Each structure stands twice: as C-alpha cells, then as structure tokens.
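Here is a typical protein record:
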Amino acid sequence: MSAQTAIAILDSMFDLFKEMGSGIALDLNWLAIARRLQQVRAQAVWSADLDFVATKLKAHAAHYAATYRPPLGSEAISKANADRLDDVVRHYSILRAHLEQQLPAS
C-alpha cells in the first residue's frame, strides 16, 4: 500500500471537478469519482476517519451531479452550483490531508 499512490489517484479527480463545474457528463464524472475513491482505498491504510470523509465526498459529488442546473445567465443558479462544488472540493481537501498524514516524514 502506498499513500503516495493514493494521493496521486485522488489528485486525478481534480480534472473531474473542473468538468463537473461546466456540467459536462455529470453522472459519468460521479461514477469516475466513486471508482477512484475505491482505488484510493486499495492503496491507503484505511481508517474510519478516511471512510467517513470519503463517504461525504461521494455524497457531495452525487448531490452536485443530481442538483446541477445550467446557469443560463442566472447569477443565483451559478452561485448555487459553485457552492455545491465547493463542498465537493472541501471534502476532497480533507481526504487528501488525511492521506498526507500517512506519508513518511522527510
């Protein structure tokens, strides 16, 4: 198991977040996020904390995909989409921080 590999897999999700922000293939992106989280789980020393954060990340990504609305020029819709995407990114950051704690000290 390698925390470094797990972090690399997790970081590869950032491109998916960018695509989610534009509303392209949201369901496919959510499935790709779920698949990558399974790969991360296989690489890292898994704990209840990691499981909790990963579950929240998947839930927020699914919520974003389910509630995304094309903004069509509406600032309110754009802000709501951005706020939900910020939740996804926040949980990604928390999960990454937990994984970084597994890296050997330099």
Notes: The chain has a mean pLDDT of 86. Residues 3-100 form one domain. The first helix runs from residue 3 to 11.
